[in-house]
Design brief:
This protein is an alpha+beta fold and 649 residues long. Helices cover 23% and strands 28% of the residues. The chain has 14 helices and 30 strands. The strands form 6 sheets. The chain has an 8-stranded parallel beta barrel. A hairpin with a 5-residue loop joins strand 26 and strand 27. Helix 10 runs parallel beside helix 11. The radius of gyration is 27 Å and the shape is globular. It starts with a helix and ends with a strand. The relative contact order is 0.09. About 2% of the residues have low confidence.
C-alpha cells in the first residue's frame, strides 16, 4: 500500500510539474509549404488552398497552421524592401479564414537570401519588412504570430541573436502585444537553443526543428550533400535484420558513418534524449518552446516505419505539452498517400493521420466521372483543383494588372524560348469525353504585342504503367492568321473536336499513333512550341471550356459585373453612409475601412455571405474618426475592390 501511495504521489508531482511549464497557446498543426514560397507574388497559385481546404484541415483537430512565406523576394528588394501589396491582400484573406475558424496562424519568414548562408546583411530586409507587416496587421487577433526568420545558418549565434533581438525591439515599438517566435542558428537546431541570448521580452515562443535520425528522415532526398537518393529502406526503430547495406555511391561519406552507428541512434530512447535537449532549455529559461518542423521524406522510406516515427515524436511532444507543426501538409513529407491526387476525401494516409493523434475523417475510393459541364482554367485565379507548373526562361505573371479583359488580373507571358510552357495540372485528372461529344470549345481572350509568333495550346493525357503508353498530346496551333499581334484583345474559340494529336515526348520523341485518351487528361498547356517569343509578349484571360452557345455569346459580351463594390452614398458624408455590393457566389467576404496610412479603422463584414446584392450602413461617428479620406475594401473569395470615402465632420 505504501509503495502504491508513493507511486501515486510521484505521478501527481510529475503531472503538476509538466503543467507548470510554460506552454504554447496551440498544440498541433501543419505547415502549408510551397504555396507562398515563391520568388514573386506573380508566381503564387493562390487558389491552391481555399477556405474549404482550411475547413478540412481544421476538421483533423488542427489548431495551428504555420505559413511559410518568402517575404524578402515578395518585396521590391534593396534598399527599401517594400512589401508587395498583393501579398498583404492574400495574407488578409488567409487570416480572415483562420480567424473565422478559430485557428492560430504563424506567418513564417521562410526566406533564404542569396540561396546560401545567413549573413549580417539579412538585417536590412528584416528591418524593412517586419515593421510593414506589424503596422498592417496590428488590429488582427492575438491568434496571429510572427516568426522572425526560418532556419538561419552559417552565422554565429551572437550575431544572429543580436539581429533577432533588434527586430523584436523594432516590432515592439509598434505592437507591444503580439506573440513573436524566435529561433536559434544552425537551421533552428535544438542543440543551438542554449546558445541563444536571454531576450529582453517575455512574450516570445522559442522554436526548434527535429529531423533525427537524419539518415532515416531524409533517405531519398536529392538536396543533401552528398545526395541521399541512393539510400532507401532505413528502418525505424533500428532492427539488425532489416538494416540495408550502404549504397556503393555513399561509401566513405558521413552517411556510411551514420549507418554504422545507427543501432544506437535509430532508437526511440535516443529520439527522446535529443528532444529532451530542447526540454532542458525550456525548463532552464522558463520559456515556451515549439517544434516548428519535423518529418520523414516519403520517397524511399517504408510507410509503416514512417508512421511509427511520427507516432513516437508527436506522442512524446504531446506528453511534454510542446506544440508542433509537422512538415508538411501536401508535399514529400506530407499527410497524403504518395502517387495519389492529394484529395482530402480520398487520399489521406490514414495510418499516419491516426498515429499523430489527428481526427480520422472518412475516406472513399476516388472514381473518375466525366465532366458534364464546362469549367474555368484561369479567371483571375487558377481554377479549382488545378495547379500551376511553369517552365520558362522568361516571365509568367499570374496577376498582371495592366489591362485585364475580365476581372482584376490577367496572365502575361514574355521572354519565352522555344519549348517553354505554362502547364495547368488537373488534380485527379479530367474526363472530357462528354464535352467532346457535346461540341464544347476551349475559349479564351488573348492579345499579342510584337513580332507574330505562332504557339500551341494542348491537352496532355496521363502516362499509364503500360510500357508502350506515353503522355500523348492533343494540340491546336494558333498561327499568325488567327492572332493579331497588335496589342488588342481577341476572343478565340477552339472546338475540342478540331484539335489534333501531335505525338509525345517521353524521354524521346514518339510520333502520333491516335492513342490520345480523352478520359484521363493530366493537364492543359500553353507552349512556345514553334519558336522563341523574343521581344513579343502575350496576355491571356478567362481561359475556359464552355459549350458553343455560351462561347459565342461571350464573344460579344462586355466584361461581367457580377462582383462589384459600388460607390458609397452620400459621399462626402457625415456621419453615416451606405455601401452597396454584389457577390456572384456564396463565399467568405470581408469589408474593411482603412485610413490613409493603411491602418484598419473598422471591419464592417467578416464571414460567409450568400450570393446577391448586399447593403450596409456605416457610421463613422461612433468610431471617433477625424475628417478625412478613407478607403473601403471588399475581399470576397478571390476578388477584391476598393472605393474612396470622404468623411466631413
Amino acid at each position: 500500500m505504501k509503495m502504491r501511495h508513493t507511486q501515486f504521489l510521484l505521478l501527481l508531482f510529475t503531472t503538476l510539474l509538466i503543467q507548470a511549464q510554460p506552454a504554447t497557446p496551440f498544440q498541433r498543426g501543419v505547415n502549408l509549404s510551397n504555396w507562398l514560397q515563391k520568388s514573386s507574388m506573380q508566381e503564387v497559385d493562390f487558389s491552391r488552398y481555399t477556405y474549404e481546404d482550411f475547413v478540412d484541415i481544421h476538421s483533423l483537430g488542427v489548431d495551428v497552421i504555420r505559413l511559410p512565406v518568402n517575404l524578402h523576394d515578395m518585396s521590391s528588394g534593396a534598399p527599401d524592401y517594400i512589401v508587395d501589396p498583393m501579398l498583404l491582400n492574400f495574407l488578409d484573406q488567409i487570416i480572415d479564414w483562420t480567424e473565422a475558424l478559430g485557428l492560430h496562424l504563424i506567418i513564417d519568414n521562410h526566406s533564404f537570401d542569396d540561396g546560401g548562408e545567413t549573413t549580417i546583411a539579412v538585417n536590412q530586409p528584416l528591418t524593412a519588412i517586419w515593421p510593414q507587416l506589424t503596422e498592417h496587421f496590428i488590429e488582427r487577433d492575438s491568434t496571429l504570430y510572427f516568426e522572425i526568420k526560418n532556419e538561419p545558418f552559417g552565422i554565429s549565434a551572437i550575431i544572429w541573436d543580436t539581429i533577432q533581438q533588434n527586430i523584436v525591439n523594432l516590432i515592439r515599438s509598434i505592437d507591444t502585444e503580439r506573440t513573436l517566435i524566435v529561433g536559434p542558428t544552425s537551421w533552428n537546431g535544438y542543440n543551438s537553443l542554449d546558445e541563444m541570448l536571454n531576450y529582453s521580452d517575455n512574450n516570445l515562443i522559442y522554436t526548434f526543428h527535429f529531423y533525427d535520425p537524419f539518415i532515416f528522415t531524409h533517405q531519398g532526398a536529392s538536396w543533401t550533400s552528398p545526395s541521399m537518393e541512393p539510400l532507401h529502406d532505413i528502418p525505424f526503430p533500428f532492427g539488425a535484420g532489416s538494416m540495408p547495406s550502404c549504397p556503393p555511391e555513399l561509401i566513405g561519406t558521413w552517411i556510411q558513418s551514420n549507418m554504422a552507428g545507427y543501432s544506437s541512434e535509430g532508437t526511440v530512447g535516443r529520439m527522446r534524449e535529443l528532444i529532451d535537449i530542447a526540454v532542458a532549455f525550456r525548463d532552464d529559461r522558463n520559456v515556451p518552446i515549439y517544434c516548428g518542423e519535423f518529418g520523414v521524406y516519403m520517397a524511399n522510406s517504408d510507410n509503416d516505419h514512417r508512421v511509427e516515427w511520427y507516432r513516437e515524436v508527436t506522442h512524446y511532444l504531446d506528453s511534454l505539452t510542446i506544440g508542433w507543426t509537422m512538415w508538411d501538409y501536401h508535399g514529400g513529407f506530407g499527410l497524403f498517400e504518395p502517387g495519389g491526387s492529394n484529395l482530402f476525401d480520398h487520399d489521406l494516409n490514414i495510418p499516419l493521420v491516426d498515429a499523430m493523434g489527428f481526427i480520422v475523417p472518412p475516406q472513399s475510393e476516388y472514381t473518375f466521372q466525366p465532366d458534364t459541364v464546362g469549367f474555368s482554367i484561369y479567371d483571375d485565379f487558377i481554377g479549382r483543383n488545378i495547379s500551376a507548373d511553369f517552365s520558362t526562361s522568361g516571365s509568367i505573371e499570374l496577376f498582371n494588372q495592366e489591362s485585364p479583359r475580365m476581372g482584376n488580373y490577367c496572365l502575361r507571358w514574355s521572354g519565352a524560348v522555344q519549348y517553354d510552357y505554362a502547364s495547368f495540372d488537373f488534380n485527379g485528372y479530367r474526363d472530357l469525353t462528354r464535352l467532346l461529344d457535346d461540341d464544347y470549345v476551349l475559349a479564351f481572350w488573348i492579345k499579342g504585342l510584337g513580332a507574330p509568333t505562332p504557339f500551341d495550346v494542348r491537352f496532355v493525357d496521363t502516362k499509364t504503367d503500360v510500357p508502350e503508353d506515353h503522355p500523348w498530346r492533343m494540340t491546336y496551333t494558333l498561327d499568325n492568321a488567327e492572332l493579331n499581334w497588335d496589342g488588342e484583345w481577341q476572343y478565340i474559340q477552339i472546338p475540342l473536336a478540331s484539335m489534333n494529336e501531335t505525338g509525345s515526348w517521353d524521354g524521346a520523341w514518339f510520333e502520333s499513333e491516335g492513342l490520345f485518351d480523352w478520359t484521363a487528361i493530366d493537364n492543359f498547356q500553353l507552349v512556345a512550341e514553334r519558336g522563341a517569343f523574343n521581344e513579343s509578349q502575350l496576355w491571356l484571360d478567362d481561359i475556359r471550356i464552355v459549350d458553343a452557345i455560351t462561347a459565342h455569346t461571350d464573344e460579344f459580351a462586355e466584361s461581367p459585373k457580377s462582383f462589384s463594390l459600388e460607390q458609397n452614398y452620400p459621399n462626402p458624408f457625415n456621419p453615416t453612409t451606405r455601401i452597396n455590393y454584389h457577390l456572384n457566389e456564396s463565399t467568405f467576404a470581408r469589408l474593411t475601412v482603412y485610413d490613409l496610412t493603411g491602418k484598419v479603422v473598422d471591419t464592417l463584414i467578416s464571414g460567409h455571405q450568400p450570393a446577391g446584392n448586399h447593403s450596409i450602413l456605416w457610421d463613422a461617428g461612433i468610431r471617433g474618426l477625424d475628417t478625412g479620406i478613407y478607403f473601403a475594401r471588399l475581399d470576397a473569395g478571390r476578388q477584391s475592390s476598393v472605393i474612396k470615402l470622404l468623411f466631413l465632420k
